[in-house]
Specification:
The protein is mostly beta strands and 126 residues long. Helices cover 0% and strands 50% of the residues. The chain has strands at 2-7, 10-13, 18-26, 33-39, 46-51, 58-60, 68-73, 78-83, 92-99, 115-116, 120-125. Strand 5 (46-51) and strand 6 (58-60) form a beta hairpin. The mean pLDDT is 95.
Protein backbone atom coordinates (compact mmCIF):
# COMPACT_ATOMS: atom_id res chain seq x y z
CA UNK A 1 0.00 0.00 0.00
CA UNK A 2 1.03 3.59 -0.65
CA UNK A 3 -0.31 6.66 1.08
CA UNK A 4 -0.08 9.99 -0.73
CA UNK A 5 -0.48 13.34 0.98
CA UNK A 6 -0.56 16.57 -0.99
CA UNK A 7 0.38 19.96 0.42
CA UNK A 8 1.26 23.43 -0.78
CA UNK A 9 -2.09 24.58 -2.06
CA UNK A 10 -3.55 27.96 -1.22
CA UNK A 11 -4.72 31.30 -2.54
CA UNK A 12 -2.50 33.15 -5.01
CA UNK A 13 -2.93 36.11 -7.33
CA UNK A 14 -2.99 35.61 -11.06
CA UNK A 15 0.53 35.51 -12.46
CA UNK A 16 1.89 34.09 -9.23
CA UNK A 17 3.46 30.73 -8.42
CA UNK A 18 2.88 27.80 -6.12
CA UNK A 19 4.69 24.52 -5.57
CA UNK A 20 2.64 21.50 -4.64
CA UNK A 21 4.20 18.52 -2.88
CA UNK A 22 3.06 14.91 -2.75
CA UNK A 23 4.62 12.95 0.10
CA UNK A 24 4.51 9.17 -0.27
CA UNK A 25 4.77 6.49 2.37
CA UNK A 26 4.54 2.74 2.13
CA UNK A 27 6.06 0.76 -0.71
CA UNK A 28 8.97 2.14 -2.66
CA UNK A 29 8.07 5.40 -4.34
CA UNK A 30 11.23 5.29 -6.42
CA UNK A 31 9.79 2.55 -8.62
CA UNK A 32 6.48 4.29 -9.20
CA UNK A 33 5.47 6.78 -11.84
CA UNK A 34 3.31 9.63 -10.69
CA UNK A 35 0.93 12.24 -11.99
CA UNK A 36 -1.07 15.28 -11.04
CA UNK A 37 -4.73 15.75 -11.91
CA UNK A 38 -7.10 18.56 -11.04
CA UNK A 39 -10.83 19.00 -10.71
CA UNK A 40 -12.69 22.29 -10.74
CA UNK A 41 -16.26 22.59 -9.42
CA UNK A 42 -18.76 21.18 -11.86
CA UNK A 43 -16.05 19.85 -14.17
CA UNK A 44 -14.51 16.46 -14.84
CA UNK A 45 -11.11 15.57 -13.45
CA UNK A 46 -8.39 16.82 -15.81
CA UNK A 47 -4.91 15.48 -16.43
CA UNK A 48 -2.18 17.99 -15.55
CA UNK A 49 1.20 16.24 -15.73
CA UNK A 50 2.93 12.89 -15.35
CA UNK A 51 6.47 11.71 -14.77
CA UNK A 52 8.08 8.35 -15.38
CA UNK A 53 9.34 6.49 -12.30
CA UNK A 54 12.99 7.39 -13.04
CA UNK A 55 12.23 11.03 -13.85
CA UNK A 56 13.56 10.72 -17.39
CA UNK A 57 10.27 11.48 -19.15
CA UNK A 58 7.56 14.01 -18.40
CA UNK A 59 4.18 14.66 -19.96
CA UNK A 60 1.87 17.67 -19.70
CA UNK A 61 -1.68 18.64 -20.46
CA UNK A 62 -2.01 21.28 -23.16
CA UNK A 63 -3.41 23.88 -20.80
CA UNK A 64 -0.33 23.84 -18.53
CA UNK A 65 2.54 23.26 -20.96
CA UNK A 66 5.28 25.82 -20.50
CA UNK A 67 3.91 26.96 -17.13
CA UNK A 68 3.96 23.86 -14.89
CA UNK A 69 6.84 21.51 -14.15
CA UNK A 70 6.52 18.07 -12.60
CA UNK A 71 9.39 16.42 -10.77
CA UNK A 72 10.05 13.74 -8.17
CA UNK A 73 12.74 13.26 -5.57
CA UNK A 74 13.01 9.53 -4.97
CA UNK A 75 15.36 10.00 -2.02
CA UNK A 76 12.67 12.01 -0.25
CA UNK A 77 9.74 9.92 -1.58
CA UNK A 78 8.14 13.17 -2.70
CA UNK A 79 6.74 14.45 -5.96
CA UNK A 80 6.33 18.09 -6.89
CA UNK A 81 4.35 20.30 -9.20
CA UNK A 82 5.84 23.74 -9.75
CA UNK A 83 3.13 26.05 -11.06
CA UNK A 84 4.11 29.39 -12.57
CA UNK A 85 2.14 32.11 -14.35
CA UNK A 86 -1.01 30.93 -12.66
CA UNK A 87 -4.38 31.88 -14.12
CA UNK A 88 -7.85 31.97 -12.55
CA UNK A 89 -8.77 28.96 -14.70
CA UNK A 90 -6.13 26.93 -12.85
CA UNK A 91 -8.37 27.07 -9.78
CA UNK A 92 -9.18 23.49 -8.75
CA UNK A 93 -8.49 20.74 -6.29
CA UNK A 94 -5.20 19.14 -7.27
CA UNK A 95 -4.62 15.42 -6.73
CA UNK A 96 -1.44 13.42 -6.99
CA UNK A 97 -1.53 9.81 -8.10
CA UNK A 98 1.00 6.99 -8.32
CA UNK A 99 1.22 4.03 -10.67
CA UNK A 100 3.13 0.78 -10.30
CA UNK A 101 3.03 0.32 -14.08
CA UNK A 102 3.27 3.32 -16.37
CA UNK A 103 1.14 3.43 -19.50
CA UNK A 104 2.24 5.42 -22.52
CA UNK A 105 -1.30 5.06 -23.86
CA UNK A 106 -3.35 5.88 -20.76
CA UNK A 107 -1.03 8.05 -18.67
CA UNK A 108 -3.39 11.01 -19.02
CA UNK A 109 -6.38 9.06 -17.70
CA UNK A 110 -7.25 7.56 -14.31
CA UNK A 111 -6.62 4.01 -15.48
CA UNK A 112 -2.95 3.36 -14.65
CA UNK A 113 -2.95 4.97 -11.22
CA UNK A 114 -3.26 2.68 -8.22
CA UNK A 115 -3.01 5.27 -5.45
CA UNK A 116 -4.45 8.73 -4.98
CA UNK A 117 -4.04 11.53 -2.50
CA UNK A 118 -6.88 13.43 -0.88
CA UNK A 119 -6.28 16.61 -2.84
CA UNK A 120 -5.21 20.16 -2.09
CA UNK A 121 -7.13 23.30 -3.06
CA UNK A 122 -5.52 25.86 -5.35
CA UNK A 123 -7.35 29.15 -5.84
CA UNK A 124 -6.09 31.79 -8.26
CA UNK A 125 -7.60 35.24 -8.00
CA UNK A 126 -7.91 37.62 -10.93
Amino acid sequence: QVQLVESGGGLVQGGGSLRLSCAASGRSFSTMSMAWFRQAPGKEREFVAAILWNGLSTYYGDSVKGRFTISKDNAKSTGYLQMNSLKPEDTAVYFCAAATTFSLVYYNTDRPYDYWGQGTQVTVSS
